[in-house]
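Entry type: protein chain
Record version: 2
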Amino acid sequence: MVDLHNDPAEVHDYLASLGPAVIDFNLPHATHDAPPERADPTEPEYGRWLSRVYDAWTGASSYTHSVRILEDIVALSLGVKGSVESLGLAPADIVVVESDGSIENVDTLKAAAPGAADLGLNVFDHTFDEVANHPAIRQRRAGVAALAQECQRCPLVSVCGGGYLPHRLSAERGYRNPSVYCQDLAHLIRHVQATLPA
């Protein structure tokens, strides 16, 4: 989890010293009605933090681990499909089957609002074709058409994908908002793209 109170390069380097194959840096779950903590809401503090992680990760030749969010930004910027649902425009293909047989939307929606992941479906009474046709699942598979107008016009949309679905939620407009991390994602994506071959 990104924690603005800690030095990003130090956090990265410490985790890297443990020899993991993959390090994930996730943005804290937040919505427009419960925005992320920031010292200055006008600044891309999370984007700057992750940009410093990128510099630490790419600046040392001895590292062999992946940093998934950063690798996905590189891949998507170069026209390759990413690996996580939180970036890019690839159709979502994940649902959750709970131990009681209920079928739910992606489970991180539970952090966005009570009941946000509920589909009202289960493995006993419904097929996965019915799950795929549920309006909430169709929305996640609609790509750019499901995004806010400002996202559809953005030149970075193929990389950021409008941001992670839970981070777009507001009581007023549902999920048709830019991510609460829009400015951060834009800063990070531009920082990464500036290092890539033209």
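Comment: The beta strands are 22-23, 66-67, 96-97, 102-104, 118-122.
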